[in-house]
Amino acid sequence: MRRRILIPDHVRVVGNGARAAIITDRRITGLSADVIAELVAEVGPLWHERHQVRLESRPRERAVGAGAKHQLVFIDRLLTMLGRLRHGAIHDLLACWFGVDRSTITRAIGGVRPLLATRGCTIAPGIRLRTLR
């Protein structure tokens, strides 16, 4: 059974066809689509919770909902991180792949890496990720 991942319409992301190709081609992430769906279900709510806590921890200068919106939804952030871990892809390459700025990729990876580390998914520098084992 495949899980459907709902993405808000107001978020600019890589096209659904490209995302589906990334998820289904195991050579890109090293993980099956089912494992990626499990990661999204497990780590996605943790990322959202951390993001909300960070937003609420500082005084608001703008109305709720104002300001810049995320250019990458969580699944795109996760795919970026997996591509970085598996192939050691540089941030400029990932930025071109997802159609965003390099700094967006850097923030995305910085936000997802600690969450994967708490799940036990860490690697030593110079080693490419093959599987979650």
Quick summary:
By secondary structure, the protein is mostly helical. The chain contains 6 helices and no strands. Helix 4 crosses helix 6 (102-118) and helix 5 crosses helix 6 (102-118).
Apparent shape: globular
| CATH fold node name | Cyclin A, domain 1
- Describe the sheet with the most strands: none
Second rung of CATH, namely the architecture: Orthogonal Bundle
> How many distinct domains?
1
Q: How many E-type strands? A: 0
Helical content band: 55-70%
Helix and strand pattern: HHHHHH
Structural class: mainly alpha
Spatial separation of the terminal alpha carbons: 23 Å
- Strand fraction: under 5%
Which ranges are low-confidence, i.e. pLDDT below 50, for 5 or more consecutive residues?
Answer: 5-13
Calculate the mean pLDDT score and round it. Answer: 77
Rg computed from alpha carbons, rounded to a whole number of angstroms = 15 Å
Number of helices: 6
CATH class: Mainly Alpha
What this model shows, in words?
The protein is mainly alpha-helical and 133 residues long. Residues 5-13 have low confidence and may be disordered. The protein starts with 15 loop residues before the first helix and ends in a 15-residue tail after the last helix. Helix content is 57%, strand content 0%. The chain has one domain (16-118): Cyclin A, domain 1 (Orthogonal Bundle), CATH 1.10.472. The protein has helices spanning 16-24, 26-29, 33-56, 74-87, 91-98, 102-118.
Task: Give the topology.
Elements: H1 16-24, H2 26-29, H3 33-56, H4 74-87, H5 91-98, H6 102-118
Helix pairs in contact: 4-6, 5-6
